Amino acid sequence: MSIMSLDYWLQWQxxxxxxxxIIPTVVALRLIISKRxxxxxxxxxxxxxxxxxxxxxxxxxxxLLCFRASAFLAMVFLLYQTVANLGxxxxxxxxxxxxxxxxxxxxxxxIISARGCWLYTRxxxxxxxxxxxxxxxxxxxxxxxxxxxxxxxxxxxxYQVCAGAVMLTDIVxxxxxxxxxxxxxFKLTLLIGLMHSVxxxxxxxxxxxxxxxxxxxxxxxxxxxxxxxxxxxWSLHVCCLSWWPYPFLELNTPWAPLWYFGxxxxxxxxxxxxxxxxxxxxxxxxxxxxxxxxxxxx
Length: 298
What we know:
Blueprint: H1 6-9, H2 12-36, H3 39-43, H4 61-86, H5 94-121, H6 128-141, H7 143-146, H8 150-180, H9 190-195, H10 198-209, H11 219-239, H12 256-288
């Protein structure tokens, strides 16, 4: 594969595109560093039980565990089929980055749910009200268990990154790429269709079952995720690649800054859409099932 010449990188639009993703990266990093200084306040809001206790009073945590394990296995199978058919070349695409991240999220969620089920079985609950007593007792008697550790924090961050990334991936594919990328080099197959749909379906189902909190601060991690992909692509093109997996990443056009700016802006509605779905879940289910649904706290 040929590499880009120096003249390619000295074009005026390259500098503008660089600024477009460097500024959000710097802002996101500063916000994250500032947030870490107030970490203790955050842990008073988010509890470790939120990561494995379902938001339905009569639903045993083992059902959430089974769902997460099944979703993980299904995503591993689809990713394996994709790599087997197309090769590791597929990891040049943002879709596979996001799909793999969602798979890791479900793997981590399975582990944390399994640990939660073990804690739950040590306190067998037969009456609906006993579960609330169990959670209250856990907060009062074992506050260290309620604090988020490395794995819990990683899962929560992945959840919020995946929320925005699956919306971005699927919306861009179905609404932007598919209508215009036709011909011999691009054909919609069942596998490609599943890769651009089950990621969002599984994550939304997990949100419907779980009590995970969706915070707007998670948008900063979503920004870092997408910016990391752009840095990855630019690094490859500096070293060994001349082909762009997405046409809107091409820099050899005066329209490049508009494309990059447009893709930066679309992150806001994609992340916001998932947030609206979570709020709609809380509002609708709390009205339809007031006795069994546990509304998330924000």
